[in-house]
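WARN no homologs supplied; continuing
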Amino acid sequence: MRLIPSTIHDLQHTLASANASKARVESWDLSALNRVIEHTPEDMTVTVEGGATLASLQAEVKKRGQWLPIDPPDSSITIQQLLATNASGPRRHGYGTVRDYVIGMAIVLADGRLIHSGGKVVKNVAGYDLMKLFIGDRGTLGIVVEVTFKLRPVPEAERFLQKHCASVTDSQKLIDSVLSSPITPTVLDLHNSGGLTVVLGFDGARDEVEWQIARAGELGVTDAATLDHDKKLQLQAGVRKLSVLPSKLAEAIGAIGEASFVARAGNGVIFYSGKEITWPTAPIPKHLQQRVKDTFDPNHIFPQL
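OK structure emitted
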């Protein structure tokens, strides 16, 4: 079953009926729920419906000099999809993930109930913090229909620099030098599109950015760059994701071999093409995941874990 609700109430009614008959809900289209409900620039918060695209939200809040500092490669992603996949982009190094900016949300559960977590003010402590449970659930627990984000000012300036490296060892030395230096890049990527390359990004006040560029130059990072390397890879089909300790980044890249990759060098997240590689990871507590699934979706009408 594919759901195309026209209102939140419509979605509630349809899900309640599907749950009663134990009908599987395979997908949904929230494009009708696409409003920016409330933007409060003085509080730097915005409330938006789940069917709005990230691009449309950014365009709206940018009118008042603000933005949501989350930059997945496809800005046409909806807010609901953004939360369900916990998507992010190169600026994750400096700005974190979408979890860091959600202060309230409304979710429709499998039985049609509408629940709320958090609120519309930054210093909100009311109720249970269910927000982190639904961020990254890939639509297995409920459908996010409304979100309140805290925003940031649009930076006065932003610059990207890069340096080509002869080997993975050289790139790791450069990354270590960056991390131990006084500079604070918002982007710290390593990719192999056109050769092994470290990319740094800086934003903020113009004087601050110029200072950081000068310090990066002392480390040999001087060539102008863009973030095209990220979209070039991630908008392809079949891209895989691997998460390792930052200290294991060079080892993981060696295991990937000649495949195209983009690595968030500061946190160990690697996106790559080609065949899947095996990497030792901590066991997933699947029994706990299943208990959560059974609690929120006992008839399993949403996609499975």
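The longest helix spans residues 8-21.
OK
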